[in-house]
Amino acid sequence: MKIWSTEHIFSYPWETVIKAAMRKYPNPMNPNVVGVDVLDRGLDTEGRLHSHRLLSTEWGLPAIVRAILGTNHTQTYVKEHSIVDPEEKKMELCSTNITLTNFISVDERLLYRPHPENPEVTILTQEAIITVKGVSLSSYLEGMMARRMSANARKGWDAIEWIIQNSERERTSL
Amino acid sequence: MNSVGESCTDLKRDYDQCFNRWFAEKFLKGDRSEDPCTETFRKYQRCVQKAIKEKDIPVDGVEFMGPNKDKPES
């Protein structure tokens, strides 16, 4: 099992960042995400918005890798639960893979909040628990996954910034 | 962005547009007036649930939340 965590600061207010986070896909930094659907969405009794989403990702795994993993599918699926609390200004996302679960489980949690020392900017704390199952090289593979996640996290932050800047460009050209 | 069910992409886009507008202009500003996207969401959902069954995507175990929403018919 490997635990990985990181923090990142966006130089934009919380509302701007989470509007972008809700519209994160598509973006040029995450071309592997090929489908996103909302499975359910609604407000709870405290006025927080819950969304359950399904993401499909295409990694272009070669046939031999797919044979080893025992899958015919070329796409892997992730389910995501997000909670937006507009009073407390918190957006939390939890996601986990629902395919390839015999081989690996990646549970990720993201939390977007205004920075406690500067409410004009937003802090994202991100963590993941990675478990590769039943394979003797598990700690090596887990380490590899954690490094991959660091690279992907950077892409994710760039994606949010790209969405924010594109929205600003649209607004100023009106 | 496409839907997981290719034929649902147009319905998804309609719903996403409605939702993004409501999210930015109402929800985040504390406006709790009626959600205008319920009908668009229902149409989109019927399509997605069908695609999930057809593709055999294992979404079981996703708790369907939302006291304000009808449970989808199974």
TrEMBL record, chain A:
It comes from the Eukaryota. Residues 1-172 form the PRELI/MSF1 domain. One of its GO terms (cellular component) is mitochondrial intermembrane space. InterPro entries: PRELI/MSF1_dom, Slowmo/Ups. This is PRELI/MSF1 domain-containing protein. It comes from Solea senegalensis.
UniProtKB/TrEMBL annotation, chain B:
Keywords: Disulfide bond. GO terms for biological process: phospholipid translocation. The keyword Disulfide bond applies. It catalyses: a 1,2-diacyl-sn-glycero-3-phosphate(in) = a 1,2-diacyl-sn-glycero-3-phosphate(out). The keyword Disulfide bond applies. One of its GO terms (molecular function) is phosphatidic acid transfer activity. It holds the Pfam family UPF0203. It comes from the Eukaryota. PANTHER family: TP53-REGULATED INHIBITOR OF APOPTOSIS 1. Belongs to the TRIAP1/MDM35 family. This is TP53 regulated inhibitor of apoptosis 1. It comes from Solea senegalensis.
